Each structure stands twice: as structure tokens, then as C-alpha cells.
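Exercise 7. Given the components listed, write out the predicted structure of the assembled complex. Treat all entries as one system.
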Amino acid sequence: MMMLGRGPDARDNQTRQIRDAVSNVEKHFGELCQIFAAYVRKTARLRDKADLLVNEIYAYAATETPNLRVGLKNFADEFAKLQDYRQAEVERLEAKVVEPLKSYGTIVKLKRDDLKATLTAKNREAKQLSQLEKTRQRNPSDRHIIAESELQRASMDATRTSRQLEETIDNFEKQKIKDIKDIFSEFVTIEMLFHGKALEIYTAAYQSIQNIDENEDLEVFRSSLHPPDYQSRLDIVRANSKSPLQRNSSLKFSSGMVQN
Amino acid sequence: MMMLGRGPDARDNQTRQIRDAVSNVEKHFGELCQIFAAYVRKTARLRDKADLLVNEIYAYAATETPNLRVGLKNFADEFAKLQDYRQAEVERLEAKVVEPLKSYGTIVKLKRDDLKATLTAKNREAKQLSQLEKTRQRNPSDRHIIAESELQRASMDATRTSRQLEETIDNFEKQKIKDIKDIFSEFVTIEMLFHGKALEIYTAAYQSIQNIDENEDLEVFRSSLHPPDYQSRLDIVRANSKSPLQRNSSLKFSSGMVQN
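Answer.
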């Protein structure tokens, strides 16, 4: 009596609950997939800008004095290496996070079809079971025997399909939690690998910058402005401008006036 | 003679060399500024996507079984914390790398005006000096004395301005190397601070994911599909469907047929 009265409601409720659970996973895994993909794309854009930075530092370094040139070149070498690791990060995230989430869409669809078939069978059998119960109650006559055997078969089928549905949804849930744990663990591992490399590389890059000897470069810059032959010419000019004063002592007075 | 013949060329060459050096710094610091700014913007875009990811993980976690919910929520908490550090990274890079490079444009302009004035004075004085030399050589008469005193003053002025120019360009070079070292060191320090925090935070985030107990969640999911009153109704139905078989032994044959 209770099953006839409230059974179908409970079944509908359970059916709805399972369908909602699967749709919910489908929806959220889809959104996670899109946002992770966007995160990976932005990481790739960041790598692009870092590559431009590497090229510009090389270009600038080439125009500079030796110490600055070497320091900046070494920095750019290290920074370029980091971008290779960022590229590896992008490819790994694509393969281990975005792709599994994307293919999960297909998996969820297949599992939903699976579930739908099982749910349909379960509902059909449950209806048949309650139909037979009604027949049995209305006809306690000779048709009773056939009804009883059909009732028994329907009952066993319903039980078997129920167990099957339970297994299907159980596997779905188990797989889902496992996949989430796997995907998020992969994400963290890939990111940590990159951040660890970044620390290592920046430590070397920092030394490249700190090692730039400004005084040596300053000397180089100065001597580039005063080539040796120019310097000697300057000495000749100075000697020339002094010599008249030394040669003619009568100039001492007038030169003294100018100096005061 | 050498100065009259090749001096102006050497001076022009030096002037061009200094101007080129300053223009080169202006050009490359400008480009570095733009690319660093783009790098910072892309980092901010990455943070935006990560923020979306945080929100989506919270939204999904809210729909899930307790262990998954807590695990994902803890992960999102950690990941959100990392985005706060990324925001700090963005602000620090803006303040310590992009701004100094941007304001360097103004500094370079001022220094270039400075250099231009000094170079102009130096060139004017050098011309005056060579003019006086010519006058001295052509007029060994009474105007010679005035010419000699003017020559001496012009020579001293040229020497003083030369020294001034040397100091100006020296300071410019010194400041430039110091600023490059400072800006790149700040860049590396800010990035390392972020990567260090990332490693720390991801270590905690990894634990949040690993700690998710799938078996406990599976039990919760199962019992949510079979509420206690439904379970008891199911038992009643099973008892009802079994009772006719137990009551009527004549059904054994037909039920056996169904089972084979």
C-alpha cells in the first residue's frame, strides 16, 4: 500500500536526484575546464611578454659597456630559461588538467546515457511490479497463478536493475572524486615544479645583476670618449697655449689682470 | 695644427657619441618600461582568471558531498591567498620596476638638456680657442697681447667646461648602471617573494586535496539516495512480494521455470 501510494514519488525523487547530480558534475566540470583553459592561455600570454622582454634585454645589452652587457645577457639567459619552464608548465597544464576536464564532458555524457537506460528500466519494472500487485489484489481467481509468477519475475528484475543502478552511480561518484583529486593534484604539482624552478633560476639571475662592476664600465665609457690620439692632441694644444706665456715675460702683467 | 685640422672632427665625434649614448638609454629604457608594463598587465590578467577559478571552485564545492566540499573549499582558500600575493606582486612590480623606468624617461630628458648645454658651451669655447690661435698666428703685432690673454681665458673656460661635461656624463653613466642594477634586482626580489609564497601555499593546497576521503563521501552519497523511510518502505515492498510465494507452494514449479 505504501509503495502504491508514495513509491512512485520516491522513485521520481531518486531519479531526479541522480540526474541532478550528474548534470551538476557536467556543468561544473565544464566551467572548471573553461576557466582552467583561460588560466593556461593567460600563462602563455605572460610567457609571450617575458619572451619580448628577453629579446629587448639582449638588444639593449648589445649596446652597453662590457660589464653591463655581460650582466644583462646572463640575466636574459636565465630569464629565457624560465620561459622554457613556463612553456613546459603551459603544455603540462593543457595535457594534465584541461584535457582530462574536457574529455570528462564526453565521459559524463556516456555515463548519463548509462544511468538513463538503467533508470528507465528500473522505473518500467517498478511500474510493472505495482501493476501486477493491483491485478493480484483484484483477481484472486485462476489468473492468479500467472500473475504471481510474473510478479516474482518483475520483482527480481527490479531488484537486479536497482542493484545495477546503484553500482553505476557508485562507480560514477567514485570515479568523479578520484578524477577531481587527480586533476587538482596534477595542477598543484605542475605549478610547484614551475615555482621551484623559478626560485632556482632567479637566484642565478640575481647574481648576474649584482656582479655588474659599475666602476670598470665607467672607465671603459670614459676612455671610449677620449681615444688615445685625442688625448695626446689635447696635451699638444695645452702645451701650445702655455708656451707663449713662458716665452714672453712682458705678458705677465696683462695675463695677471685677466686672472684677477 | 693638429687641433685645427682634426680637432673639430674629434669634438663632433665625441658630441655625437655622448648624444647617441643618451638617446640609446632613452630608447631602450622606454622599451623596457613598455614590456615590463605589459608583463605586469598579463600577470594581473592571470590573477583575474585565478580569481574566477576560486569562485567556480567555491560554487562547485557547495554542491558536493562533505569531504569533497571541505577539500575543495580549503584548496580554493589557499589558491585565493596566492592571488592576494599575486596582487601584491603586481603592485610591487608597478611601483618598483615600471614606475622607475617610466620616470627615467623624464630624468633622461633633463640629463640630455644638461648635456646639450654643456656640449654647446664646450663647442663654442673650443671654436673661440681655435679662432684665437689663428689670430695669434696671423697677427704677431700689438693686438697680440689682447689675443694672448683672451686665448688663455678661452683655454681655461674650455678646460673647465670639459671637466664639467665629463662629470655630467660620468654621473649619468654611474646613475644609469646603478638604476639598472636596482630595477632588475627589485624585479627579481619581487618575483622570488611571489614564487616562494606560491610553493608554501601550494604545499598546503596539495594536502587539502589529498585529505579528501572518498569512501566517507561515497557513503554520504548512497544514503542521500536512500533516505531511511524509503529504505524501510523498500523492505515492506520486498516482504509483500515474497509473502505470496511463501504462502502458496504450488507456485514453486512455475517460479522455477522463470528462473531457468
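Discussion: Chain A touches chain B through 96 residues (CB under 8 Å). Chain A has a mean pLDDT of 81.
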